[in-house]
Each structure stands twice: as structure tokens, then as C-alpha cells.
């Protein structure tokens, strides 16, 4: 046994150690460069199912003692570096620096090469064994023994398998997909080259969906010719890579394509006369360098080709879903911008999951999955990604891609804005019906609490109050002085029961707080009177007394706090109208002091103001709503607070329709 020293520094050798998938590919490339016709990748496991050894065996030319010593003693000086170097079988060589073998240590800490080859000058074949350990990459042990095989070839045995390699082989499909992407063109081009992975032949042609050649028009000043081969796979979770190849197809490097294309599973291969194994890899990252310009051109062509494929795939898939009756949208054109955006984003999401959905043959399951995705997209987009991960089993990297698209696209925001504005339009129509329809208005006073509804819709009083919540200190003070507003008055968060046990319908006080800037706080207090009560001067006086007590309470008696008190009812008396129309004050302002203001409004004015604020967006979105749509939303959101007449009307309409 001979111990040899590798002529390279430890840090340099360690830099050649790659991830498990890349290390496995390097061992197969070494076999290709030795004119192997068959490469087998196998594993042996222990009783617990963990991998003991990884073996990569080929029937190539193998190494004799002299070649082994030369190959392992030097790094960066290989016979493959000669210009136009070809193997004996006329194959273009993959590696030229003699460092690929060190990638094997990414699979395990102990690596052994057992190779059989004829002796120099036609001597009898012998078997050479080379042993290395990741703890001492600068030294190798080489021994020569009796011939172990009647044919030449090399068997690489990897032991002390790393956790990363164990994990990679646990994800068998992903590792197989990586090998398919790496060797697809060579398996197609060289019919005498075959790979078996875990006793299964790699046959790219059986899983290639489409393959096309794209001739590239290079920028001015860039010599040579370049072409792009795009393979789209009928697989899931393919490791998308852009392989950089010499003119003869030898791969010198690979890079991420940096292209978002949901639903696309692809690898691409860029061939250019100017790529070589000797070219500095740093030039590939320089967009102004010649290689950088070629790569930029290739990415643009790749992006256009994938977009074209995506459009065709989407059209075919949606057409098929419609034919099956599982597409969750009705036939016909979208009715407004929101619906159009919803369909467009839905199709993007659906294409990402299409392969998984199509695996099921059940029409019912397909329809359910697609409907759930639509509902999640429309109602709670944040819940969509967990659904795709847990139910559809979408891989993490595809989820990240989809998340980035959904966050950046304006269509997603349009859907969310459209949903919110549409809901507000429907709410205003429903509230209008509850307040002013004679039958529902009368019953509302007798049985249910309309006021409870408004505690969840504070945007009605101004957009600045749309995202405020309950304020416990404020509520405590509001409750402390409620008696100043008379009998039968409560906070929106409280439930009132009369002495006879029946639920009461009080006037309601609603409070919200909002910081107006870094050192100021604004409070809104709203008193909602019963719809059948006409606001009078006594109501304003009561609210003024209430306001004065609150703003002077020790918890809020501060110079940086301001207050707006609102009094709202269906109608006003003449004396109140005079208070609301005073010279030098905005309409509706009945009192304006240093600490607080009192505003008196009718419901008609509040609804009109709210409609005006959203009118432009509503018209832009072409959203249509009416009284029935509004009442339908009220039934859905606030059923416990609505009179029976609202539900009886729904039943009557359903009967008439039937």
C-alpha cells in the first residue's frame, strides 16, 4: 500500500466537496468520461433502514496503478485539459481539472475507488484500490492487487454516509429528477450510455413533456453561435437549472435561471462557442462580460418560451376542467375588474397545482379542490399557501415562488380591495334597508339589536376608524358616565337584559381610539339613537354633559388628547338643525371646543358620506349591488341581530323563484 500526498491545500480540496446530489452527478460524469456504457447507483441499508453504503459502479476503462497515482496526486492538471480532448469512444469530456472525484466526499466521509484496468503497455489487468477520508483530504492510500473482475470498470464505495446524503436519498424522486435534468441530453445523444438509479433505468424520453431548440440572436460584439434547449418535464418539483455547455454539449457549470413560472417544471441547456472549462466562473456573474451577455440573452429567450408554454398549458387545462364541469367559475366573460383579476390569479395558482389535482380521477375531488382554492383566494388569501402545502403537498420552493408572485402582483391587491369595497357597498345597501324599510325598521326596534352590527363596521364613521379596535381604558370611562345620557343606554360590547328577563334594545355608545401622530391621540365616541327617535336639543345637551365629564376625567385630561362625539339618528327636530347649521362651523358640528367637538348627523347623511368615499373605487371596479344583495350580506354576517322579517323575505323570494 502506498500513501500519496495530494499537491493542493486543504482548504482548496475542501472547496471541491459538494452537496450530495452534485457529488453523485460528478461520479457519474467520471464514468461517462471513461466511456462507460452503464452506470449503476445502488445503496445498502442496515436493519433500521439507514444507508450503510452508496455504490456507483461503471463498466468504463478503469484505472491502473500509474493512472491512479497521477490522477490523485495532482489537482488541476488532467489529460482532459487538452484542447478538443475526446475520450477513446469520441465523447467530449465533462471535467478537465481532476477535482470532480473530491465531490464524492459530499456523500460520505469515507470513499473507496476499486478499479480494474489493463496494465501499462498491455500488461495483464489488475485491480487498484484508492482509499480516502474526509478528515484528511491531502492524503490517499493506493494499493494494487489481483484482478477482481474479468472486465474493466470502477466501483466507488461511499461509507460513513452523511446526514445530508441520507436525507437526499430519502427524497428519491427529487434525486432522480436531478439526475434526469443533469444527464437528459447526454442520454438522448449517446445511445451507448445508460444510467440505472436504484435498479431503475433513467429514461428521460418517458417523462419529457416538450423539448424545443431555440436559436439565439447574440448581442453585437459577441462572437460565435448560441442555442438554447428547453425541456419541460411531466414531473413534480424538478430542480430548475440553466446548464452552461460548450459547443459540443459538454456541461461546464449550472446556474439558477431566476425565472418565476408557476406550474412549469423545466431545465434548460445553453450552448455557446465561448464557454470552456478554463473560463473563470466569475465572468458568468458579470452581466457586462461576454459570457454574462450570452446568459442574459438566453434568460430572456427562456422567459418568453416559458410564458408561451404557460399560456397554452393554462388554456388546455381550463378547457379540460370546464368540459369535466369542475372549473369553479361560470362560463362567459368576467363581469368586472375584480372578477377578471380573481380568475387570472386563480389560474396562476391552479396551474401550480394542476399536476397534483390531475392525479386524482375523481371528478368530485377535483371540483372540491378547485372550489376550495377559489374560496381561499377570495376570502382569505393568507390561508391559501398552507392549504397548498398541507393538502396539495406543493413543495416548499414552489410555495415560495407562488408567495412572491401573489405578494408582488397588483391583481392580488385588486382582489383584496375589490372584496372589501364590494362588502362595504353591500353593507350600505343592507343597512339602508334595515333603517328605512318600514317593516324591518319597526321590528328591529322590538326584537333585535341593530346597533351591535355597527360595532364591527366603524369605517362607516370615517376611513381613519376602519382598523381601530376596542380600547379598555376608554370603555371604562365611557361606562363610568353613561348615566348622564339618560336611562337604557349601554356600550356596544355589553348585553342588556330587562327585569323581566327579556333582551333590551338600548341607545348605544361606541368608542374607538386612534393615534393621530407620535404624541397625540384622537378618540371617537358615537351615540346611536333608536331609528324611530327624532333627535332633539335635549339629546345634544345630554351628550355635551357626557362629553365634558369624559374629557375631564383624570385618565384622559391631557393636552395631547382630542375628542369627537357623534350623535346619530334617523331624523332631527328643527332646534337641532339650527345647532347643526352655524356660521363658522362645518355642517353638523353642534359644538366645537378646545378639547372636544360634537357632531349631529342623520343616518341618511352617514350613509351618503360613506357611499361617496367609496364611489370612485366602486365605479372603477364596476361592482354592482342592490337591496337584496345587501340584505343577503346582513343575513350572512349578522343573523343573530336581525328581525325575522328579513329571513321571511328570503324564504318568500326562494319560493317565488322555485
TrEMBL record:
Pfam families from the UniProt entry: HATPase_c_3
Source domain of life: Bacteria
Protein name as it appears in the record: ATP-binding protein
Native source species: Nocardioides albidus
